[in-house]
Amino acid sequence: MTHPTEHSLVQGGRSAALATACVRGGVAAGLGLGALAVLVTAAWISSPFPDSGPGGVLHVAAGLWLLAHGVDLVRTDTLSGLPAPLGVVPMLVAVLPVWLVHRAARDTLDPGDDSDRPRPSPGGAVAAVAGGYLLVAAVVVVYSESGPLPAELISAGFWLPFVVFGAAGAGVWTALGRPLPGQRQAAAALRATGLGLVTLCGGGAVLAAVSLAWHAGEAQAAFTGLAGEWSGRAAILLLVLALLPNAAVWGAAYGLGPGFTLGTGALATPLGLAGDPAVPSFPLLAALPAEGRGTWTHWAAVAVPLVATLVQGWHVGRTAKGWPARDAALTALAAAWGCGAVVAVLAAAAGGPLGSGRLSAFGPVWWQAGAATVLWGACVGVPMTLAVRAWGRRALRPKPLPVPAPANANAAASATTPAPVGAGAGAGFGEPFDLEAQPEAAPDAPSDGLPGVTPGVTPGGGQASPGKPAPGTPVATAKATAPAPPPALDLDDDPGYEPYDYLPAAWESSPPPDPKA
Fold first, then answer.
1. pLDDT band (50, 70, 90) for residue 205
2. Which intervals carry biased composition (Low complexity) (predicted)?
3. In sequence order, which residues have a C-beta less than 8 Å from that of residue 298 and are 6 or more positions away?
4. Which of 53, 237, 311, 431 has its CA 20 to 30 A from that of 146?
């Protein structure tokens, strides 16, 4: 009979925690798939002309769920009979599965009220949650192969793990308190990257909203022309809402410079719309710029990346006031690279193929948008960082303190007058002062230079000692050349003072006794 040890109990607790995390991942995948299935089923029920049964509805829901993870789909029921790819991700729909994975990973490490339950390591939590989620995703991919929207296997093998592991890692990071790297440069670069992304995407959303309001008539005509029933219009409205984040990324790419493609051979940039665009009728696409060369209204779109990089550089410059210029510039450059990498991922998700032929390229090109973001950050963000840093260091310089002037000229002159040099004790500068050797000056003795008085001779006819002031020396001069002695301590008036006799030390012999005593 074996008894359970503490080590085996701990290992068993961790294994149970990993199993629980795996179940959490599977539940998160099921919740996202179920929510989309309910939405598609409601649209199918409300449609006056349903063209498929419940099986087709579930296949459409499975395809839409995979598309929300970035997986490209293949439409088989086309008019030409040829399969057509579909790769534009409705980014608002993608928020649901990403949030579910994030919450599952966060709750795995968050103890909550039960602080005694075993918890896995951060890496184990990410792997367990992502593993459970991907198991359900694999089943959905296999199920979609028999429907009208099968998944492209290569795209599924790349984007599904990328999105799931990224969301799970973000959830674990949140559970740990969102720690930043220990190096101050890395932490500042991450903060600046987030600030630049928010500013850039917000500016892109403003550009898209302004252009849509400018072309409101065309957008309304496209909306009413696609469907006449309220159920169809409600479905189109939901699709427009799901593609609003895509429009924001398109606006950001337009302001960055590379713009976006409108089919093969057509490109829209602030300089103008070149080529023959292949644009289907859709309300959001009515906000596209007109054909021809761009005007100042189109050129004003570059203000979006300009403001974003200026804000990014300002943040790094404020943080790097006390850093060397090289560290500040490298931090700003790292923030530019981080922002460019995220913009490239967003551009890849916001665009993609809408069909075959000319519609095989639609939306911003991911590598061009990312490279333009890095270029903006290097050309504008780095100089802005150095300028803000230099201004901050100028404000932090200490001001020189004023030097106090001497009280009066006579005091300065008397302080610099050297003492008379002589041969006697206390005559030289720095020698001990001999108070007993100094004769008292007569108050009414004539000074040198007066009639009847020989310089260097005392009034009594004696010769003045060299190195000692003569009795006729003025009192002010004597006080300037010799410091006053410190006052002697008078202990006779102290009631606590009692004189005592000499006491021999232990090694000294006692004095002989007095024979007369």
1. very high
2. 473-482
3. 270, 271, 272, 289
4. 237
In the chain, % of residues over pLDDT 70: 72
Query: Vertex 352, ends 363 and 259: CA angle to 5°?
Result: 20
For the chain, give every domain's residue range.
Answer: 10-176, 184-396
Q: How far apart are CA 227 and CA 128, in angstroms?
A: 45
Q: How far apart are CA 469 and CA 455, in angstroms?
A: 11
Amino acid (1-letter code) at residue 441: A
Residue whose tokens read 């959303």: 205
- Alpha-carbon span 17 to 309, nearest angstrom: 44
Residue (of 260, 443, 497) closest to 368 by Cα position: 260
Produce one character per residue of 243-275: b if its CB has 16 or more CB atoms within 10 Å, e if not.
Answer: bbbbbbbbbbbbbbbbbbbbbeebbbbbebbbe
Main-chain phi, psi angles of 293, to 5 degrees: -75, 150
> What DSSP assignment string belongs to 425-454?
TT-STTSPP-STTSPPPPTTPPPTTSTT--
Listed residue (263, 252, 227) closest to 88, CA to CA:
263
Range in 34-43, 162-171, 425-434 with the lowest mean pLDDT: 425-434
Of 509, 513, 435, nearest to 478 (Cα)? 435
